[in-house]
User: Which sequence fits this backbone?
């Protein structure tokens, strides 16, 4: 019994898929990881996989980080790179399957009749018409695994690009937190400088009065004035550093230069726990190490793709359709045509063309291997440096606090002796000149202690960027269960809410989907889709609703009483107005907003974006901002005598 053509194709496909893949299979290289970190903290806690920045207890910092994750341009660029890498993977994997195409030709041709037998030439119609319509099929049988190795390399490159995106997000959060803590430290230095300048100014005023009545000499007045100008010089320098730090934060937030809202002072912030972990966990936690390993996998697969060129290539081609000299007879029975062919090609003498590609691939694999090992050693060193810096900075802060306390006593006693006439004003001047820079140093060290903990979490990697495919993501509540928080967000500030876009990772095959981003934490779950690509929207008319209670009414646009001058008319507590504003995607999925042409029903599709899940305790009651402490001057003005 003759086997049907379909059976032949199935047999060929089985042979192709079961063919061997030349080249080495990837195996993770052995890593000489230490058992524990040398400077690991004794009271470390398992907090590396949580929203560690919330441990500072500053809602303004939480808002800034949420805005940076939604608007930062580096994150958008990294997401676009992932989409490009996924496109390369899709293009490479297409070679595993038959390529089907079509073609059509219409031609009119006249041949010469001037020849040896013009009588015979007249028997042939001249000019001639020809019409042809064909369906073509071509397929390269991947017996040696060349295309599969190339697909393996493209998939590893796509995952490496996604790990680079995760690294950008990790660095972004650390940069926002570090710059914000530096800004709060500079604010404290500015407050110390202004308080000291005010005390010195009062002293200068009293000494000038005493000089007018002959109580003190001009030299003493000059000494007090030099002390005053020393404090005055520091203020412009600190203000310049504050402005530069604010600009750096605005760049991270993806917005133009402007003021940055403040929350708690460095005195009120809570020092986070040092995260616990062993060095071997960095191999699966740090994005840069995962990126380096995927690059090694890609380079290893290129060796097999290059070695497959030594073996013959088998290609199957076929076409079928109709061909006729008349357009009306093109699809008639006698006009049918078809062809089927198999082609086998292979190298014999290439004079180094193939061996050179193999040598190049092997060299690239060795370079990637050494780069991976170097990245591991640098990761261990980063963690150790961050741990020892945190410990020593805390010791430095304690010593600096003792120094400031001693200098304050020194300045107070020197002032008492000078008022009693037991010493000259030079002693007072020396004491206060030592106290002022010590107080500035203490403010800087206190901010550095908080920043050192940020560096620890950055060096540890941070599993709070959890991998979660779209199929595992929980669906939002239906429209009938939408919370009042979502409705108020849409009513008051629908123009500021994020739009739903598609994640390029969804184009990956099931086994190679790029991970989405989810921020994990305790409490109620409120999904927030972060838009990384803005699109014009047309708001749908809203049904009439009853007015909100007075405590839930939204201030008019431009009202900055809620702590954020760049978010207009958004509900929330003071200093945290941007905390719950990205709700538009949920409203779109619930049918309250248009989907902007996206065929996806639930609207949870990202173009160049990431999904951020923020888990908090829901809406919080507004509370008045704690009044900033006024630093009392430690120096009393000199007492006038006579």
Assistant:
């Amino acid at each position: 019994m003759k086997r049907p053509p379909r059976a032949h194709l199935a047999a060929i496909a089985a042979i192709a898929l079961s063919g061997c893949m030349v080249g080495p299979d990837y195996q993770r290289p052995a890593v000489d990881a230490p058992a524990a970190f040398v400077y690991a903290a004794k009271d470390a806690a398992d907090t590396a996989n949580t929203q560690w920045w919330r441990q500072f207890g500053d809602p303004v910092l939480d808002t800034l980080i949420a805005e940076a994750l939604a608007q930062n341009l580096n994150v958008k660029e990294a997401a676009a790179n992932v989409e490009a890498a996924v496109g390369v993977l899709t293009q490479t994997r297409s070679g595993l399957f038959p390529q089907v195409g079509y073609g059509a030709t219409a031609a009119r041709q006249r041949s010469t009749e001037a020849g040896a037998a013009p009588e015979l030439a007249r028997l042939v119609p001249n000019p001639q018409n020809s019409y042809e319509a064909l369906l073509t099929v071509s397929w390269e049988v991947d017996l040696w695994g060349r295309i599969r190795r190339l697909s393996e390399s493209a998939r590893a490159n796509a995952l490496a690009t996604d790990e680079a995106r995760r690294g950008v997000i990790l660095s972004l959060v650390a940069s926002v937190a570090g710059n914000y803590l530096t800004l709060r430290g500079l604010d404290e230095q500015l407050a110390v400088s202004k308080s000291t300048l005010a005390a010195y100014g009062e002293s200068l005023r009293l000494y000038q009065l005493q000089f007018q009545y002959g109580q003190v000499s001009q030299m003493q007045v000059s000494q007090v004035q030099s002390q005053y100008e020393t404090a005055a010089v520091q203020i412009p320098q600190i203000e310049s550093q504050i402005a530069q730090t604010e600009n750096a934060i605005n760049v991270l937030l993806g917005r133009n230069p402007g003021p940055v809202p403040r929350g708690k002072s460095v005195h009120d912030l809570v020092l986070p726990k040092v995260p616990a972990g062993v060095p071997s966990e960095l191999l699966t936690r740090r994005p840069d190490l995962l990126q380096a390993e995927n690059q090694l996998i890609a380079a290893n697969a290129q060796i097999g793709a290059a070695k497959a060129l030594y073996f013959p290539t088998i290609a199957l081609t076929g076409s079928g359709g109709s061909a006729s000299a008349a357009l009306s007879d093109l699809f008639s029975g006698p006009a049918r045509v078809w062809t089927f062919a198999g082609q086998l090609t292979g190298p014999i003498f290439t004079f180094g063309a193939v061996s050179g590609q193999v040598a190049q691939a092997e060299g690239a694999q060795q370079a990637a291997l050494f780069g991976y090992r170097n990245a591991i050693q640098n990761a261990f060193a980063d963690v150790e440096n961050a741990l020892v810096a945190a410990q020593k900075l805390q010791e430095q802060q304690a010593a600096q606090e003792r120094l400031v306390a001693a200098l304050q006593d020194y300045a107070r006693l020197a002032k008492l002796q000078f008022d009693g006439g037991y010493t000259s004003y030079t002693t007072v001047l020396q004491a206060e000149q030592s106290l002022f820079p010590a107080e500035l140093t203490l403010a800087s060290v206190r901010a550095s202690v908080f920043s050192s903990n940020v560096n620890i979490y950055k060096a540890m990697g941070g599993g709070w960027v959890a991998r979660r495919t779209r199929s595992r993501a929980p669906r939002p509540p239906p429209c009938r269960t939408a919370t009042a928080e979502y409705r108020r967000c849409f009513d008051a500030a629908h123009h500021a809410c994020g739009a739903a876009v598609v994640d390029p990772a969804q184009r990956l095959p099931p086994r190679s989907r790029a991970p989405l981003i989810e921020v994990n934490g305790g409490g109620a779950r409120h999904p927030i889709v972060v838009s990384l690509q803005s699109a014009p929207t047309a708001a749908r008319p809203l049904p009439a609703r009853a007015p909100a209670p007075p405590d839930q009414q939204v201030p008019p646009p431009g009202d900055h009483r809620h702590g954020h001058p760049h978010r207009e008319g958004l509900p929330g507590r003071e200093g945290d107005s941007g905390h719950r504003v990205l709700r538009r995607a949920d409203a779109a999925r619930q049918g309250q907003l248009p989907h902007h042409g996206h065929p996806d029903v639930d609207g949870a599709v990202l173009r160049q974006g990431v999904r951020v899940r923020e888990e908090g305790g829901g809406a919080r009651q507004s509370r008045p901002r704690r009044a900033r402490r006024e630093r009392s001057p430690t120096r009393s003005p000199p007492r006038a005598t006579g």
Observations:
- Residues 146-212 form the longest helix (67 residues).
- DSSP finds eleven helices and six strands in the chain.
- The radius of gyration is 36 Å.
